[in-house]
Amino acid sequence: MIDFIMAKKEAIKKSSWTIFGVLVTVGLLGGGYYTGFSHGQDRVQYPNYSAEVMESTETLDANFNLFWEAWHTLRSRQIEAADINDQDFVYGAIEGLASSFNDPYTTFFPPVEAAQFEENVKGNFGGIGAEIGIRDGILTVISPLEDSPAQKAGLRAGDLVLKVDGKRSDDMDITTAVGNIRGEIGTSVILNVFRESWLQSRDIEVIRGNIVIPTLATAFFDDGKIIQVKLFSFNENASSGFYKHVKGALETGAKGMILDLRNNPGGYLEVAKDLAGWFLPRGTLVVSERFRSGPDSELYANGNEALVDFPVVVLINGGSASASEILAGALRDQRETPLIGTKSFGKGSVQELVSLSDDSSLKITIAKWVLPKGHILTEGIDPDYSVELSDKDIEEQNDVQLDKALEVLHTLISN
Question: Given CB 3.0 to 4.6 Å as the disulfide criterion, which of 64, 242, 372, 384 pairs with 57?
């Protein structure tokens, strides 16, 4: 298995990661078709294309006759050609078009698979409570949710999923992987997992459940002078929950905050922007959306500014993705907030779902997220203070990352 992993990584010739994460739970974080997090439930509708509006093959810088040559050759000579109808042949050709970008998250869904994908997005199913993505061509756990079946079974951020119920994952796209992992509540799925600290892969059984996505939890240190806000997701309750807990802490005399974004796979973009508005002056750039052409679309803080001068440090790790990376990166770029932990996941591409005329659909990577100082999020974020959690630390519940955060925050408060 280790040889398979190394060979797979060698085959990937990209310098950055392109990530489409799917939260294998009852509900996807993000809600809309901008995967990972969203502006809302926007859906692009295009008209039915007729021959008159299609691009003429005479204008293409390619020999389109070659397509028909291949079509007829396969139709006449492939042993199973009689079992495939012409429409499925067309779908196969479109899948080939989508795959030509070498982007596993630009994909085509025939009508049945398109309906299944939309069901996944809406979250009408049982799952294991983990977000998964593809990194370096390998199915990877982005983050298990707090108190989820995945976490209870021992899955961790960064685990490589080599098999799902005995089926090799290297032949699966994200949609197929999710379809294999999800299932009836109470049933089990066997994931063959490899972790960097292991010598060989192991099977982990996870019992599927009805997942309730948590929002946040708080803890206090130094007799209430320091509040730790552990944000589990950027869901619709995050902004109100943050307000409730932080307002109470400020009223009782808190002097500093540890914003804990470890294992937070993201959520709504608007929530990340709202929370940034607590820490940044109004009108401060939070993140930009970079498309293939035209100017970047810029999003600015527009909040209550209550914590602009409040000492803050942020905890991140390999399970911090998308909206977590946006908030952490914006705070460091715009107010030099220290980041502590390990490198974030690097989930920085934006997908859009486009419906086609027969209810099939294309999921297309259309943009990348860029931090205020120009860092592209697909590359992940390196912490200012790199602190690893060992297996022994986790087993003994020795949170050395939190210890470092307290040390750094004490220095900020004293200054």
Answer: 64
